[in-house]
Amino acid sequence: MQGFFEWFQVGWDKIWGWMPALMESTAVTLELTAASVSTAVVLGVFLALGKINKNGVIRRLSAAYIFFFRGTPLMLQLYFVYYTLPDILHKLFDGSSLEFIATGPLSMQSRFFAAFLAFSLNIAAYLAEIIRAAIQSIPKGQMEAARSLGLTYGQGMRLIVIPQAYRRMMPPVCNEFVMVLKDTSLVAIIALMDLTFQTKQIAALRSSELVYIPAMIIYLILSGVFTLIFNKLEKKLAAHE
Q1: Which of 208, 144, 215, 148 is nearest to 184 (CA)?
Q2: 66, 103, 115, 160: which has the fewest C-beta neighbours closer than 10 Å?
Q3: Which CATH number fits domain 17-238: 1.10.443.10, 1.10.3720.10, 1.10.275.10, 1.10.150.110?
Q4: pLDDT at position 100
């Protein structure tokens, strides 16, 4: 028992010393999650509207996008954006040197951009289905009433249908946010200094697996805080139904 308390004291001192680095990498995780989900919501709206559009070409293109990004692993999409896409763009632009498509070891900013792009495109496909279902749950009479008042289809969607639909789409969108927060750990495969990669670095450099304990606790706290916030938001929106 004495040995355990000594080990615990040494371990606690180590964990406390790692916290500044873990907090810095946690900020990267939060920035990536917020930026990706925010962008994906906007793109998801256009994809959802495209999938229910009467124009067959737009509808098929939207459906194909959603099918592709929902049907392939996010990890492979991340690999493609980080490794393959820069090479394709270099050949298309005849070797021109744009920072975010630079070959070789990429800067941290480029890693963040690659992760942001891959996550945004992937999340948009899932949110598009959520948004489409919410829009189609609004009675068709709402749009018919809007058109009878002289509003265009776009105005009816923007002013009448979508404001009602967003209350219904908020719970699953909030759940998606929490899922993405945890899925961002995948960016460790491209060496973006997020919480997971920082944890692996500390474990390797310090030869201590104790660092996984505070890392999991940080993820747990973040998930719990956002879940609590979103639950309160959902109750507030439900009160206005």
Answers
A1: 215
A2: 103
A3: 1.10.3720.10
A4: 46
Residue from 159, 192, 177 nearest 44 by CA: 177
For residue 106, the model assigns a pLDDT of 47
Q: How far apart are CA 217 and CA 219, in angstroms?
A: 5
Q: How confident is the model at residue 38 (pLDDT cuts 50, 70, 90)?
A: very high
Three-class HEC string of the chain: CHHHHHHHHHHHHHHHHHHHHHHHHHHHHHHHHHHHHHHHHHHHHHHHHHHCCCCHHHHHHHHHHHHHHHHCCHHHHHHHHHHHHHHHHHHHCCCCCCHHHCCCCCCHHHHHHHHHHHHHHHHHHHHHHHHHHHHHCCCHHHHHHHHHCCCCHHHHHHHHHHHHHHHHHHHHHHHHHHHHHHHHHHHHHHCCCCHHHHHHHHHHHHCCHHHHHHHHHHHHHHHHHHHHHHHHHHHHHHCCC
Provide mean pLDDT across the span 212-230.
92
Tokens of 235: 């109750």
The interaxial angle of helices 195-206 and 2-51, nearest 10 deg, is 150
Domain spans, the chain: 17-238
Weakest mean pLDDT among 7-16, 108-117, 131-140:
7-16
- Averaged over 154-167, what is the pLDDT? 78
Looking at residue 185, what is its pLDDT? Answer: 92
Residue bearing tokens 């632009």: 93
**pLDDT value for 236:** 79
